[in-house]
Amino acid sequence: MTLPLIDFKHVTFKYHAQAEPTLHDVSFQINPGEKVLIAGASGSGKTTLLRLLNGLIPQAYEGEVTGSLTLNGKNILDQTLFDLSLQAGTVLQDSDAQFVGLTVAEDIAFALENDYQPVNKIKAAVSKWANWFGLGERLELSPQALSGGQKQRTAMAGVLVDDGKLLLFDEPLASLDPAAGATAMEMIDNLQSERDLTVVIIEHRIEEVLNANVDRVIVMADGRIVANGTPTEIIQAGVLPKNGLDEPLYIQLLRRANIDITKISGISDVSTVNVNQHKAAIAQLKQKINKNQHLAPQLVIKDLAFSYDNNQTLFAQFNATINQGEILGIVGKNGSGKTTLSHLLTGFLNPESGDILLDGQSVLQQSIKERADHIGYVLQNPNHMITKSTVYEEVASGLVLRQIPEDQIETRVRQVLKLIDLDAMRHWPIAALSFGQKKRLTIAAVLVLEPKILILDEPTAGQDATHTGELLQFLSRINKDKQTTIIIITHDMHLLANFVQRTLVIVNGQLIGDTTPAELLADEQLVEDASLRTTSIYQLAERLEISHPEELNAAIVTQ
Amino acid sequence: MNNLFGYKKRDTWLNHTTGTAKLVGFLLLTTIGMISYDTRFLLGLGLFAVVLMQTTQIKYHEYALMLNLVLVFAVINLVMIMVLAPQYGTQLYGTRHVLFGSGYWSITQEQLFYEFNLLLKYLFSLPFAIILLFTTNPSEFSAGLNKIGVPYKIAYAFAITLRYIPDVQSDYHTISLAQQARGYEISKKASLKARAKGAVQIILPLVFTSLDRIETISQAMELRRFGRQKKRSWYQEQSFSRRDVSVLVGSVIIVGIGIALLLSNGGRLYNPFK
Questions:
Q1: Interface test with A, best of B182, B188, B204 (most A CBs within 10 A)
Q2: How much is the ipTM here?
Q3: Is A397 an 8 Å CB contact of chain B?
């Protein structure tokens, strides 16, 4: 019998800064050559587990550990971060910040440089791994010139130059669009089988990770391991939704068709799941898509032209209409103009020609501040927006700056805070809020100005299913109660499928699609152009030869 | 890329010279140039620097900003010396040839000559600095610093700063726009006080985002064993070639000439007034 590579026995861990342990009595083993997904909602302790494996605990984060934990048969706590890094390579979540070199080549070389290896040996290793990852032509590029996927591949190459046998991935999908995410998973799969590596992936996006043929799934909740088994066992036991995680969409569909998934074979993969005899039950779920709700146009973009300083034209003659009270999604590849468009709408950038009309009036002459009264914009990173120290002050600041009388400020702020469930915490210091709460706070701070249109940039990035659900509930409430038009820039497919009413697909400054999300996600060509992925429902429909897969998507939408 | 520094791949011999050789050469030449007040030597050095710069194919518009900044600084510096110590030249050279004016404000030939020497120092050192910065890859520059004895953690800080400057710039830009949307007026429309207040609102979020970033960076570096060994190698480091040796020898010869002039002048000054 082979010895387990990783062996945790009754591990409990408490950060010095916290009163309660983050991990409770955690026991599991990982064998050499296994590919394991550790899944869990935010705050489930999965990141802490990873830090224990790679030595960041206790080096960077101090705390008390009890129980025994070994790597390669040796006690992890007796080894330094440096010793551990030779055995276990870590690819961090933020592929941009972990890129320490000035160029791709230097970033891949970084670990070997620190080992004081001879330069010719380093160059050989860099060129080998860069070629493996298809980065051979990009060795001299700076991180600013790379896509998210390329940065992540650089990070992987930079860890693999060590020839370690264990790879740890912290949320590898978080900063990638769905197409790049799928490629990354494929790459991890190939790498693992070719090099006989052991791979541990920390993620909460289950559907995508299961594509990488993981051998085992460990589900965590509240610092404990609540399930540990093959993907099939985990899915059949139905533990994912109970622990704040999204099940793959095709499983959700099967459940809606009241199919007993414990009796289905091949359940862990949409390309093998054996549901032929249930075709009728599944096809029955189809729902007509109601298009064209005949809403009144609110924001009209007319013949917009824009190019950056380097004279690369991004938009030429761009036209689009956004309707009163709708929930609109804007999708498209990174760098294809989504964020630029929102910056043009908010006045952060000015177009070269064309016009933007809000309720028939041009807004181009208004300053950023004036436009913010009508068009609110919530950035992706809440830390970019927060300037005050308490919750109340943060929300009030926009009103104070607009010289609103104090008694009115109080009522308006409290009203918004109640809406986002932060009223009880209004005197709290912002530093004590979680990431999800901060995100809601920044939305509140924009919302208090009562904009007619709210633009959100990647609102669900870095949030698990539970927090996403809360956020979406809150957004639909303001959409209904205040008729606020909501524009969401995203490549989160669950968000698209479950929430958005209409999508605009923008690629290279061109509007190439204006459709419902259900139809978009069933249109293979459009999906590829937008760097998205067709959902597993589409793949299932194709296998079962059910026509109009978008109508099955719609069944999930109207849950 | 990192345009702040102006480094670009150019196919010239100075580009191919190693960072270490250029750094040592730069230090040698500027040191002797700063010590010497021999006008002939400074003129020669300045001429040499300009000729050298011609060979590097650096375009005027690339360094125009830097040149203007240094010139403005130099002029202010010279004027201030004239105002604060108008008789310093006389003191130095031991003679007094008044051109015009009288008393405290009399302008002497000695003073003008002294300030001319100072101007020459600015004029010769600037081309050398431009050559060093514009022809050396920043990482190679770090490697060069490390080679001449600067601890690698400090030398690397230089490269890493350049790596993240564009990111911090873009953070700054985003935050500034978000705060303007919030209602802080930072544009020229607002009063100076309002603008200062608006600027403060950018700093806090910028500090917090940067702290987050720094935490990730330092973890990423430790996870790849930065700081484990006493020494580290440098991917961009190039092996010493004959070209590098000739740069060093050339610099030493020029330093030799400078020292010879110091000896023959019996001090740092070249005195035409005696």
A1: B182
A2: 0.83
A3: yes
Pairing relationship of beta strands A198-203 and A297-307 according to DSSP bridges = unpaired
How near does any CA of chain B get to the CA of A339, in Å?
A: 12
Does residue A380 fall inside a structural domain?
no
What integer pLDDT is reported at residue A538 of this predicted model? 85
Tell me whether B40 touches chain A (CB under 8 Å): no
In a domain, A559, yes or no: yes
Confidence (pLDDT) at A84? 92
Q: What is the 3-state secondary structure (H, E, C) of A182-205?
A: HHHHHHHHHHHHHHCCEEEEEECC
Tokens describing residue A377? 């914009």
Q: Are A150 and A138 within 8 A, CB to CB?
A: yes
The two most distant CA atoms of chain A are separated, in Å, by 75
Q: Give pLDDT tens digits for A198-220.
A: 999 999 888 889 888 899 999 99
Contact call for B220 and A397, based on CB within 8 A: no
Q: Residue A559: its pLDDT value, please? A: 46
Structural domain boundaries of chain B?
13-137+240-265, 146-223
Work out the average pLDDT over A528-549: 87
Verify that A13 and A101 share a domain, yes or no.
yes
The whole domain housing A360 covers 292-374+451-514
Q: How does pLDDT run across A253-288, given as a tens digit for each residue?
A: 999 999 999 988 888 888 888 988 999 898 888 887
Residues of chain B with pLDDT under 50: 1-3
Would residue A379 count as lying in a domain?
Answer: no
CA A31, CA A6: separation in Å to the nearest integer? 7
Q: How many structural domains does chain A have?
A: 4
CATH number at residue A108: 3.40.50.300
